[in-house]
Amino acid sequence: MLWKVILLLMLALPTLALDNGLMRTPPMGWMSWGRFRCNTDCRNDPKNCISEALFVDMADRLVEDGWLKLGYKYLIIDDCWSFMSRDNKGRLMPDPIRFPNGIHKLAHYAHDRKLKLGIHANMGKQTCAGYPGTMLDQIETDAQTFADWEVDMLKFDGCYSNVNEQQKGFPLMSKALNATGRPIAYSCSWPMYRGGLPPSVNYSFLGEICNLWRNYDDIEDSWESVMRIVDWFFQNQADLQSVSGPGHWNDPDMLIIGNFGLNMEQSQAQMALWAIMAAPLIMSNDLRTLTGEARSILQNKAVIAINQDPLGIQGRRILQDEGHIEVFWRPLSKSASALVFLSRRTDMPYRYHSTLSLLNYTSSSYTAYDVFKDETVSLPSVNTHFTITINPSGVVMWYVYPDKSFEQTKETGGHPNFQRKYAHASQQRPKHNLAPILL
Ligand SMILES: *[C@@H]1O[C@H](CO)[C@@H](O)[C@H](O)[C@H]1NC(C)=O
Ligand SMILES: *[C@@H]1O[C@H](CO)[C@@H](O)[C@H](O)[C@H]1NC(C)=O
Ligand SMILES: *[C@@H]1O[C@H](CO)[C@@H](O)[C@H](O)[C@H]1NC(C)=O
């Protein structure tokens, strides 16, 4: 069965990837769109409009409330930041009333606090919200403008452009960003405008020019929207799972935890499934008013460590049970793995019985760490029966590791967050305990 593991690893590591050295693990941060959209009414809603003040507030929260320490370092300006026309040299410029000190100053503010600044632009005549877009002959100018402002990431959208313009524009922007000499992470919304699947989308090519890409619809503030995205990604996992990896990620869109559409069970489910997908953890919420519960889910160190696993292999759905329970699995470094049990039921907490062998785990002895309950479950054999209780529209998430690999040295390697609990864990890959083999 070793060959299957190797095959899986090879599939997950395309030969070529965008060579800017950025985003070796899925990016983490905060973005304005999901929560603040295109609210430009600073006169009547000064605290919530797209403005310098909003990004300064979020920068402060990211730093002072412990987000940055956990890896949430990108502060990303989405659509609606710019003035309605370009300046007299043809360059994009920010709205002077809402961004009185300009984007360069904001980048400094972010950098002084060890954050990275992201910005939004759009391949096409205008942005989705009607602000100036980037036509083919403006790509180099705009890339240089962002570099001059010391921006660290560009989200390049694709409204109001046709197939041919996108075919030319998205690769051209990648080249233009590279030519500035400044490492700027590049997020491409291209596949989303082409249906998200091969053959219309060439993911090998995308991996060579972009660090991440939006494949599918925008997320909305509802459980239904989260489930629609989850369904699409896992129904298409045969096409999508292998195209993701260090430096080039599928992006199922923002985390909406902390807004209005998800209860706590559903919030845990979004966090857990995004970790299984090796998805960017880009929140869009109001960090100034987040509840303690939302914060504890978004700041769960074990889930973050699973999301950030250095192998960067996207997980898959391995089971859809008749009882409306689904099981998701992601292989992790150090022969560990993550399992998520999701309940699609709407009746009551469901007691789910299984064994690891039913989930195709092969080696003999494991420990499972329940990341939301902060408890461990010992599974001395793959045939050991276990029962877990999964709440309606909720999850149970396990970090599963083979016992043998935890007997050797005192180091933990890629999972610093498990250090406290598993101080005896090994950094070496055990010779006989391979990652569970699943199809
Ligand atoms: C530009 O591309 C080259 C070749 O892929 C790469 O080595 C270099 O690091 C890139 N530079 C930037 C600034 O992205
Ligand atoms: C997809 O892109 C890769 C890498 O650039 C290229 O080698 C391949 O020919 C492309 N496939 C198709 C069907 O165009
Ligand atoms: C386990 O492996 C068998 C045989 O390859 C396969 O039919 C089954 O779907 C797998 N089960 C899971 C849960 O992956």
TrEMBL record:
All residue ranges annotated as the Alpha galactosidase A C-terminal domain in the record: 312-394
InterPro entries given in the database record: Aldolase_TIM, GH, Glyco_hydro_27, Glyco_hydro_27/36_CS, Glyco_hydro_b, Melibiase/NAGA_C
Enzyme class: hydrolase
Positions of the UniProt region annotated as Disordered: 410-432
Any one GO BP annotation for this protein: oligosaccharide metabolic process
Molecular function as annotated in GO: alpha-galactosidase activity
Localization, UniProt: Lysosome
EC number: 3.2.1.-
Record has GTP-binding as a keyword: no
Keyword Glycoprotein: yes
Leader sequence segment: 1-17
Pfam families linked to this entry: Melibiase_2, Melibiase_2_C
Keyword terms of this UniProt record: Disulfide bond, Glycoprotein, Glycosidase, Hydrolase, Lipid metabolism, Lysosome, Signal
GO cellular component, one term: lysosome
Subunit structure: Homodimer.
Family: Belongs to the glycosyl hydrolase 27 family.
Protein name: Alpha-galactosidase
Annotated source species: Pygocentrus nattereri (Red-bellied piranha)
Higher taxonomy: Eukaryota, Metazoa, Chordata, Craniata, Vertebrata
